[in-house]
Amino acid sequence: MNYNQVIIMKRFSFPATFTPDDDGGFVVTFRDLPEAITQGDTEQQALIEAADCLEEAIAARIDDKLDIPDPSPSHNHEHIVILPIQTALKAALYLAMKEAAITKAQLARLLEVDEKEVRRILDPRHGTKLLTMERALAALGRRIELQLI
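Request: output the structure for the sequence above.
Response:
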């Protein structure tokens, strides 16, 4: 890959609204993922639940072969919830496959592995080694860049 080319970066941190609940605590919603709704008794607990909820929503979209939206810009009143790295990498691979219009069988051939292995790599609930994720993304012309904020 020519590093002078424009590289499209995907961001997997989504804005969430924390709405005080009449019974106490907070209800958490994501405007980019309307199916993702959770709650917590405290703001800290709501943030923990929000991360879990976000992970489940993205995993479900991968399982159901649905689109994963780009995160909207956040507003002042919103919290940013970051997708756990393992799920973010699997979502990035899923999106790269969709963009390249490549099937699991085709990726398996590129990686010289059985198609079952590619299904495991894409499975959000299966632990996959980082090296394997890097290799699969590289096969699609992508690379991982880590940014600490």
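The first strand starts at residue 13 and ends at 20.
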